[in-house]
Amino acid sequence: MADRLVVIGGDAAGMTAATSARRGRPDLEIVALEQGSYTSYSACGIPYLVGGAVEALNDLVVRTPQEFRDRHRIDVRIRHQVMGVDLDARRVEVRALDQSRTFNLGFDLLHIATGAKPIRPDLPGIDAPWIYGVQNLTDAARLLEAVKDKPRQVVVVGGGYIGLEMAEAFVDRGAQVTLVDGAPQPMRTVDEDLGAKLADVLRRYGVDVRCGTAVEGFGDHVVHTANGNIPADLVVLGLGVAPASGLAADAGLDLGVKGAIRVDHRQRTSAQGVYSAGDCADTFHLVSRERVHIALGTVANKTGRVAGANLGGGYASFPGVLGTAITRICEVEVARTGLSQVEAKAAGIDVVVGTAESTSRAGYFPGNLAVTARVLAERGTGRLVGAQIIGADRVGKRIDTMAAAIVGRLSAADMLDLDLAYAPSASPLWDPFQVAAQEAAAALTARPTRS
Fold it and tell me: How is the beta sheet containing 370-378 ordered, strand by strand?
């Protein structure tokens, strides 16, 4: 009788692992259990669905359950919630939600890809029906139903990627939008002064940005803050996510940073034959050399592929991450990789910072727009440890050059001689990151001033 692989979770890390395992072992019986109604979808696209740039919810679905059944012989069961995992008996307890029945399903191999859940702080009134978290397509469907009533006043709580993107989306829908964040500036993954630039962009777009404002609770369509009340027809929580690791914890698996499932470089958990990947698992940071929890679709797909290769009898390992990310907020893109100044300090890495105020194209070429690029280099060695960029005119993907440079352990001085492309219509003669690296390199060689 063939071995059975049970996959818990039907999105990126789960289904990527399932299909990778199938390629390695055609004989493997694979059962994928998904609590919701969709598989392999782009949660990152939900703000664009709400804003109207994406027309239909199904446009975000990459591959349906039936496609997995037909093309990969994977027994996908949607609306099936795993209630518990018994590692000793090698079985999972499953609730078939549409049939109101519970049954046990045995496994030889297990892959946990339960993803992440929106952070909902323990505040008075936070469970009110007009307060929404946005993590999966079921959440998106509920939110789309709510916006049919055309809410006039929307409050977004939290200034991370999703919070900023949702604020823009509701402005596009004609709502009056207030963004509330307890931090001094939005987007904590970039340095504070670049976050301030984002706040200015949002204000120009029509968002009432209130930073340094703590939310204390929710009343009757009112958000209570330390600086007064804000009326709201609808609230969206954009406070980030936490790993959905409860099943793993209850089963006795080891947890790591931020409560994520602890895995090794092959995505193996602390139990024999049990793997995990994606937003529910931890990973390794290539610069800080520490275990981290980073909830990104790119990481989920890559770690899912590694887990699946090993589940299928092969050998694969995941080297780690830099946290490279990009988003577009209104008319600008913001991107980052490696460590910010706050993160470098927490990791005990002393850095110098080079910042360039540049343009997206040659200064004389029509359509050139302002760009701020920043690099962080370790004091002493000069190696690049982080980079950030903000600007319009599609500048954000320049961050990929810096991600490659950091992985390649280039120094700030090395950046100056990289043979990067130039044309007046596409870039200034000196790439903004090279100008920033030049400033950092100069700081590295400067003699300290005497006090």
Answer: 325-329, 332-338, 384-391, 370-378, 351-359
